[in-house]
Specification:
With 188 residues, the protein is mainly alpha-helical. Helix 1 runs antiparallel to helix 6 and helix 4 crosses helix 6. The longest helix has 36 residues.
Length: 188
């Protein structure tokens, strides 16, 4: 078991782009407003565990429950689509009875450790050593934790109108990601 800095760097960069926690700041702030707070530690830990479990057992788990990676990606794309519609149109689609659960759903899954991240992990596994992917996951999740812990500061930094612009812009980007995931996995 050898660690390879080049593989760790590549894996970290790919996961950083897919997770896109900086682009998700408006969503995180919106979820924090809805719930009153976000448990950064819980969200980060759950997302990390989900990604590591999926790295080791993802394809097998999906096969056991009769799903393929494409179906999983399509389901994730629909959840991402709903979140994006909330952001762009100002709708409220997710009505949480227990708002403290936003730390797990939809934050840890599918926003951080979503279908795009999970399918990317399966792709990375074909190219890189597993231990290097795990290190890449951990590096990304430390960054995610820092961002989640500082959402109030980031909210003050951007201001109300800056956040509105970011929320709408990222909502459109999320819509595009959802449609791309859907299209790539349906053959449309």
């Amino acid at each position: 078991m050898e660690f390879n800095f080049s593989q760790i760097l590549s894996t970290s960069m790919v996961l950083f782009a897919i997770i896109d926690i900086l682009g998700a700041i408006p969503v995180v702030i919106q979820l924090r407003r809805k719930a009153g707070h976000i448990e950064s530690e819980k969200a980060t830990l759950v997302a990390t565990i989900l990604m590591i479990i999926f790295l080791f057992a993802g394809e097998t788990l999906l096969k056991v429950i009769g799903l393929d990676v494409e179906s999983f990606a399509i389901a994730g794309s629909l959840v991402i689509f709903c979140i994006a519609m909330e952001m762009v149109l100002g709708l409220q689609i997710f009505n949480e009875e227990a708002p403290e659960t936003v730390s797990i759903v939809p934050l840890a899954f599918p926003l951080i450790a979503g279908a795009g991240t999970m399918t990317t992990l399966l792709s990375l596994k074909t190219e890189y050593a597993t231990q290097n992917i795990v290190v890449g996951i951990v590096i990304n999740m430390m960054f995610v934790y820092i961002v989640l812990k500082n959402t109030e500061r980031l909210e003050k930094l951007f201001g109300k109108s800056g956040l509105n612009v970011l929320r709408k812009a990222f909502g459109v980007i999320l819509l595009a990601i959802a449609i791309k995931l859907f299209r790539n996995n349906t053959g449309l």
